[in-house]
């Protein structure tokens, strides 16, 4: 929804950073995706988050593009880009943003209302979002263990200020503040697929 075929035109071998699946499309597709989200024809904005380091791994395809590992680091930036380019630009309202970033995924995977809801009996996984935050995406400041960002230098408006997992603060102002090993594997009911 943010990248396009134009990214392949990056100088030198930089276009290899954008080899992932599904592949990039022409820029005019982006408006159709925003309309699909706004009209509920698309219910989730997600990422496969399949990162490969540029220097050690993507370079394997320098002489043969078929050997470029297929994937992109994007999980850390998904919600902030969706808020910036969706809510702040007026393409999405706040309720749709929450649904396509969280609630609908929980429903799809059979985890709702334990996940994706604020109600008695839910896990108290909450995000307090700061709409006034301003920043730039950079590999130098990201928490992902990869040597580049596909969104290097992109400005964002808003980010989570506090994230709780089952009621415990896990992130505060972009820094991990939780307990290592506190995660739980949640079995899903396969009838949802």
Describe the fold and architecture.
This protein has 193 residues and is an alpha+beta fold. It has three helices and four strands; from the N terminus they run αααββββ. It has a four-stranded antiparallel β-sheet with strand order 1-2-3-4.
Largest sheet: 4 strands, antiparallel
Distance between the termini: 25 Å
* Order of adjacent strands in the largest pleated sheet: 1-2-3-4
Order of helices and strands: HHHEEEE
Mean pLDDT: 94
- Global morphology: globular
Number of domains: 1
Keywords:
4-stranded antiparallel beta sheet, 3 helices, 193 residues, alpha+beta, TIM Barrel, 19% helix
How is this fold's topology laid out?
Layout: H1 28-38, H2 78-87, H3 94-108, E1 126-136, E2 155-165, E3 168-172, E4 175-176
Antiparallel strand pairs: 1-2, 2-3, 3-4
Quick recap:
This protein has 193 residues and is an alpha+beta fold.
